[in-house]
Design a protein that fits this description.
Blueprint: E1 8-12, H1 19-28, E2 33-37, H2 40-47, E3 54-56, E4 62-64, H3 66-76, H4 87-102, H5 105-113, H6 116-130, H7 133-149, H8 157-177, H9 188-202, H10 205-214, H11 216-226, H12 244-273, E5 288-293, E6 296-301, H13 305-318, H14 322-331, H15 338-342, E7 349-352, E8 355-358
Parallel strand pairs: 1-2
Antiparallel strand pairs: 1-3, 3-4, 5-6, 7-8
Bound molecules: glutathione.
Amino acid sequence: MNATPAPYRFHAFEVSYFSAKVRPALRYKQLWYEEVRANVGDILQRTGLGFIPILETPDGQVWQDTSEILDQLEVCHPNPPLFPTSPVQRMAAHLIELYSDEFGLIPAMHYRWGSELGEASARARFTAMIGNEKRGRAAADRMARARLMLGATDAAAPAIEAHTRDLLDVLSRHFGSSPYLLGARMSLADCALMGPLYGHFFNDLVSRKLLLESAVPVCGWIERCNFPTSDGQGEWLEGDALAPSLRAVLSVMGRDAAQVLLDAVRSFEAWADTRPEDVEEPPRAIGPYATALRGTPIQKGCLPYSLWMLQRSLDVYRSFSEPERKRVDESLVGSGWETVLAYQPRHRLGKKNFQLIFEKGDS
Ligand SMILES: N[C@@H](CCC(=O)N[C@@H](CS)C(=O)NCC(=O)O)C(=O)O
């Protein structure tokens, strides 16, 4: 147990995508924490951003944004480690986080809200969870609309389902012989992928059926991530290796997500090029952009946050020495991630009081 004088307080929801990313980390690090049901109004007051989850530390600080929550947990409680330090595994973990945070929401929203059965059961769960019919309905209405904003339209359904099928197949193969994504120890990569796969897929009726009927090894991995005991942990693969079955996972992710992500960033950068001079904070969304998934055109709301997430991976990539980068490049040949790592953003976003801001000198 990583001892603290008081518990962490995790403001979250069981069915929340991003809560599912942080919860396994709290358990893996053997932290003393209590989970309370999030109150968005309260979070808005504390941080100015109505996003779930937040983590309140034993000394009363509030952390928001799951990427930063995981970073801070690693700094405060480095053992057991969540972030590999060897370049190939570290890069793979960050790319899986990028995929999960930026693309995984599309299949997640499709399976939760994109069918009659999915929507009806999600609505019932929201009402039960919120404990009030009217507020439950309002929250469900907002999320059902968000499905379309996130690009999970009916027209895109066949492409989304084909992507999901391929992903579950390569994951099933991988977890058939490896307990976690990077070997026998949990990492940032597992936490991030729990967002879509536990937060939505395992919680929702339609996708849960799909998992239990056709991806049992993935269900086994979900159980391991939810109950990561210390004696259940081995080590990441020796020699900074990636299992061949993980390369297949990275390829399904990269080939489908790279275009959607880079189109978002290009669209945001085009907006940022001509923004009025006095704009310090980008708006939360800047309207739709056009992209495609397996040849099916989709329109998706463009979120400046996508650039911040891309920067996070690129900063890791650029922190490596030349020979390390070469090894990373070799490990990702043909995976679809090459274009992402080659991208050179023209703008740079930072954060101030939880809000995204253009970094000084960005014009
Ligand atoms: N980048 C944020 C995203 C958090 C987020 O989008 N949370 C969802 C719930 S899983 C939310 O609060 N959505 C409310 C909304 O979009 O208004 C993080 O990593 O924490």
